[in-house]
Design a protein that fits this description.
This protein is mainly β and 221 residues long. The chain has 2 domains: 109 residues, Immunoglobulin-like (Sandwich); 106 residues, Sandwich (Immunoglobulin-like), CATH 2.60.40. It is 8% helix and 67% strand. It has 3 helices and 15 strands. The strands form 4 sheets. Strands 4-3-6-7 form a 4-stranded antiparallel β-sheet, with no helix packed on it. Strands 8, 9, 10 and 13 form a 4-stranded antiparallel β-sheet that branches. Strand 1 and strand 2 form a beta hairpin. The longest helix has 7 residues. It starts with a strand and ends with a strand.
Length: 221
């Protein structure tokens, strides 16, 4: 399986050797991909009209899965690995009159691009006479079969439900690779703001070429 321009391409090479005494006709190969809830997310068909006796044919069957469609079907695919199902059916006709068909199910692993996404508790330190600096560590693992890039924006709320800061970072993560970074927020330095900022929540927004998602609400403190 390869990834290209927002799509996953599933390639299934088929080698057919006709060593019999009759021509093989109307070879058909079909694949149907479904998510964990049984929803069809992709289908494809390939065919060979004729395989004469004594000859062989190599067929590469390609099925395209749109990554955006998969991610939009359920948010679980952003954060959790899963197994997609591929139904494969093949059929042909022997000697012009005898049809035959076989089918099977295959499991296709799906790796989440934001697997194990986490934000740790903020840490506070004095920046200058008027502001504190707040560091918020975030991390995730790209389990997907494609590189992943975009912007993560985090809005920090205190326990009084007031916005105390906003920060964002660009990311580019290679497939099957981890990512971690500290976001910085600057908070006015006074006793009241520091007291309420010890607990609160982070609203996280993701913006990529494949999808927009948010807010993901993560409490802290």
């Amino acid at each position: 399986m390869v990834a290209s321009e927002g799509k996953l391409i599933f390639s299934l090479p088929i080698y057919i050797e006709n060593g019999g005494y009759c021509d093989l006709k109307d070879f058909q190969l079909a694949t149907v991909f479904s998510d964990t809830k049984g929803r069809v997310i992709s289908s494809a068909k390939s065919s060979v009209p004729l395989i004469p006796r004594g000859e062989n044919v190599t067929l590469v069957h390609n099925a395209t899965l749109n990554i955006e469609d998969i991610l939009e079907s359920a948010e679980q695919y952003l954060f959790n690995d899963a197994n997609l199902t591929a139904q494969v059916a093949a059929g042909l006709t022997f000697a012009d009159f005898l049809p035959a068909q076989i089918s099977t199910n295959l499991t296709l692993p799906w790796g989440a691009p934001l697997y194990n996404f986490a934000i740790d508790s903020p840490s506070f330190s004095q920046f200058n006479a008027t502001h504190s600096i707040v560091n918020v560590p975030l991390s995730f693992e790209n389990h997907a079969a494609f590189d992943f890039e975009g912007t993560i924006r985090v809005v920090l709320f205190d326990s009084a439900d007031s916005v105390i800061g906003e920060s964002q970072t660009l990311f580019h993560v290679l497939k099957y690779s981890p990512f971690s970074e500290d976001l910085e927020f600057y908070v006015p330095l006074n006793a009241g703001s520091l007291a309420t900022a010890q607990r609160g929540r982070c609203n996280v927004y993701f913006s990529t070429a494949l999808f927009e998602y948010g807010p993901l609400v993560i409490p802290y403190g």
